[in-house]
Amino acid sequence: APDVERFALLRHSLELFAPGFEHVAVVDTEDLPLFSARFGGSPRLRLLPTAAVLPAKVERQRRFWGGRLGRWLRHLEWRIPSHARLYSGWKLQQIAKIEAAAQLGAVLDL
Fold first, then answer.
1. What is the pLDDT of residues 86-106, one digit of tens each?
2. Fewest beta carbons within 10 Å, which of 2, 13, 34, 46?
3. CA angle, 92 as apex, 33 and 107 as ends, to 5°?
4. Alpha carbon distance 4, 68 (integer Å)
5. Pick the residue with more confidence: 108 or 64?
6. Other C-beta atoms within 10 Å of 27: how many?
7. Residue 76: what pLDDT?
8. Rounded to whole angstroms, how far apart are CA atoms 7 and 21?
9. For the chain, what percent of residues have pLDDT higher than 90?
10. Phi, psi (5° rounding) for residue 87?
11. How far apart are CA 99 and CA 96, in angstroms?
């Protein structure tokens, strides 16, 4: 996943310039093993899969549109009704961040 290399740069920056910063990252459920293998030993890093923060219906839709059939259908997007694909990649990222913050805030009493 190309996101792994960008994430490595982010982690490096945080370790250099904000060493005491607690970092919570939401990663696609299917990419969690890859991120865990590479960054699992990083101090103050908590990796959460999207399945832990997104509602089940949204997670299923994210996985469908990210899968082989969903990617193929995106090429036909102009033929698919606009309501068929409710959440795009960017929107899903924002929803995941908000959900994670809400869940963590409830745990941390923020």
1. 666 777 788 888 888 888 875
2. 2
3. 70
4. 21
5. 64
6. 21
7. 61
8. 15
9. 35
10. -125, 125
11. 5
Q: Which tokens sit at 104?
A: 């963590």
Q: Where residue 108 falls among pLDDT bands split at 50, 70, 90?
A: low
Answer yes or no: are the C-beta atoms of 53 and 25 closer than 8 Å.
no
Separation of alpha carbons 35 and 78, rounded Å: 34
Residue 29 and residue 59 in contact, taking contact as beta carbons nearer than 8 Å: yes
Give the separation between CA 75 and CA 78, rounded to whole angstroms.
8
Is the CB of residue 38 less than 8 Å from the CB of residue 4?
yes
Two tokens, residue 21? 């910063």
| Contact indicator for 62, 31 with CB cutoff of 8 Å | no
Task: Report the pLDDT averaged over residues 38-55.
Answer: 91
The rounded mean pLDDT for the chain is 81
Note whether 25 and 46 are within 8 A (CB).
Answer: yes
Joined together, the tokens standing for residue 73 give 């259908």
